[in-house]
Each structure stands twice: as C-alpha cells, then as structure tokens.
C-alpha cells in the first residue's frame, strides 16, 4: 500500500523544525526513525497533511552520559545507544527491541513518543522515573518543558506531546550504588512484540537488605504498569511477584488470555527481581 498524499518538510535546524511544527499544528507528524510512522501511513491508519522530517537537524543526535544519568537526543538510534552501553537497563531493553535492521533506524525518543504499551522503552522510562523534554516555538523563541514519565505516557499510543511540540530528548536516571536492574519478557518469536514483559530495579542497603524495589510491566495495561514491591519483597520475591499480579489488568486477545498474561507476569517479575537483586549484591 501507499501512504496518503502529504506535504514534505525537511528543516535543517531546530528553530526551523519548531517553526514548521507550529505552523502545521495538528495537521503535522514528525518523521525521525519512521519504523512505526511509515507502516501506519502505508496502512492508512493516519493521514497527516504535513510530514516534518527532522533527520537533518544534527543537534538532536547526541547521547550525553553523566553521573546523574543519560540524556538521549531525538535522533539517537536504538543501535547507537545500545552500543554506547551508557545505561545498563536501557542497553538490555534495546537488545530486546525488534531486529537489528529496525534498531539501526528506529529512535529511542520516537519509541517513547509512540507510546506503545507493549514496547520496552516506555517501561524503562517509567520504572526509572525518567522524563522527556518537549520543545515548541513560542513568541519568537524556543520554549521547553520537562515531562515526567507518569505524565508523559498518557494512554495506548498517546503521549503528552502537544500539537506543534517536538520531543527533543529523553532522560534516563542512573541506577546508583548497590542497585541492579533486569528485563525479562516472552515473545512467540524473537523480535516480535512480547506477550508480556517486566523490567525491575532493586537497591540494597549497606547490610544487603532490600531498600527499594519496583517493576514496570509491558503488555498488560494501557501504559506501562509500575508497581513498588519494596514492602512485599520482605517476604521474598514470590510474594513480590504476587503483588505485581494483583496490580495489573491484562485483557484477552488473539495472542493470549488475560489469565495466561497474569501468570506470565508473575513468573517474569520473580525472575527480573531476583536478577536485579543479584546484580545489586555483586556491585555492592
């Protein structure tokens, strides 16, 4: 199939990109990696009057790692960030995204803006309490706002990006000392969307006891489901996994029943939490 007709824009700097987006408003869509947008256009699931290609905006392709965390620019590809290994959990999640050919073009920030509840990267942003920086052209200058993961991920395929705004970067906080992370998921075939997935972050205190533990689940709600299991973990990871199962609301579909997904999340949560705790103990 072919996409519906649209007017193509190729701005060469951020000012131009934001001015263009401000002008086209709700009639425009941003093209970065295009791994979700192009298929949706071809299947006529959307029909924007304007396509704003930001791939020539070189200032958006950076990845900045520091003690506080990693900031990923809007044009940083999955494979680029994966090779950089600047954040352990982000790196693990990226290895689970689709196939290498997709990761070579797809962008981290684009995946977040797409807000697919079955995708890995929104869950990573959510479990880390990360944020996305949004920019717009306002009163002759660039105005920005930083939106936390909870507010950014609004619903299935729906983020907090407003008409005329561009998601210019995402921030993933560092794990910190005595902290480990893990990502577990199950898909019918490698590279397919997972039936369900769980990423976990566990922090131990100086005595090796659990100081904080939380997970984010994919594929079992309209947005990644984040559950704090610090208290439940005191009775073991099985108890923590049951706590996660209580918080999710999976649905039946052609791929799996709700009951199966609930069971699967329990198994994956136990594995992920145990793996994260072992990593935290090894790094203490």
Features:
Enolase-like, domain 1, single chain, Uridine Diphospho-n-acetylenolpyruvylglucosamine Reductase, domain 3, alpha+beta, 2 domains, 284 residues, 5-stranded antiparallel beta sheet, oxidoreductase, 27% strand
Describe this structure in words.
The protein is 32% helix and 27% strand. It has 284 residues and is of the alpha+beta class. The protein has helices spanning 14-24, 37-42, 78-84, 88-95, 100-103, 108-114, 120-128, 149-152, 237-247, 258-282; strands at 7-9, 28-31, 50-53, 63-65, 69-73, 131-138, 141-148, 153-155, 158-159, 166-173, 179-186, 196-204, 210-218, 225-228. The chain has two domains: 1-54 and 62-174, 2-Layer Sandwich (Uridine Diphospho-n-acetylenolpyruvylglucosamine Reductase, domain 3), CATH 3.30.465; 179-282, Enolase-like, domain 1, CATH 3.30.390.50. Helix 3 crosses helix 4 and helix 9 (237-247) crosses helix 10 (258-282). Strand 8 and strand 9 (158-159) form a beta hairpin. Residues 1-177 form the FAD-binding PCMH-type domain. This is Carbon-monoxide dehydrogenase medium subunit.
């Amino acid at each position: 199939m072919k996409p519906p007709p649209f007017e193509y824009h190729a701005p060469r700097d951020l000012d131009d990109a934001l001015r263009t987006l401000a002008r086209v408003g709700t009639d425009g869509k941003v093209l970065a990696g295009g791994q979700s947008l192009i298929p949706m256009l071809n299947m006529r699931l959307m029909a924007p009057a304007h396509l704003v290609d930001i791939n020539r905006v070189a200032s958006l392709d950076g990845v900045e790692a520091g003690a506080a965390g990693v900031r990923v620019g809007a044009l940083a590809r999955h494979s680029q960030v994966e090779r950089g290994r600047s954040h352990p959990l982000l790196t693990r999640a990226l290895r689970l995204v689709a196939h290498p050919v997709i990761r070579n073009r797809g962008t981290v920030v684009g995946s977040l803006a797409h807000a697919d509840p079955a995708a890995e990267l929104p869950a990573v942003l959510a479990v880390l309490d990360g944020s996305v920086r949004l920019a717009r052209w306002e009163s002759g200058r660039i105005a920005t706002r930083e939106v936390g993961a909870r507010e950014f991920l609004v619903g299935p395929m729906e983020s907090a990006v407003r008409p005329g705004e561009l998601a210019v970067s995402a921030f993933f906080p560092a794990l910190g000392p005595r902290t480990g992370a893990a990502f577990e998921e199950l898909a019918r075939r490698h590279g397919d969307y997972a039936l369900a997935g769980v990423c976990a972050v566990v922090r131990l205190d100086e005595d090796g006891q659990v100081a904080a533990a939380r997970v984010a689940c994919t594929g079992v709600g309209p947005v990644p489901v984040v559950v704090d299991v610090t208290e439940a973990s005191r009775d073991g990871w099985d108890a923590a996994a049951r706590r996660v199962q209580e918080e999710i609301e999976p649905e039946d579909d052609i791929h799996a029943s709700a009951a199966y997904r609930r069971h699967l999340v329990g198994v994956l949560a136990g594995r992920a939490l145990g793996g994260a705790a072992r990593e935290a103990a090894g790094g203490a």
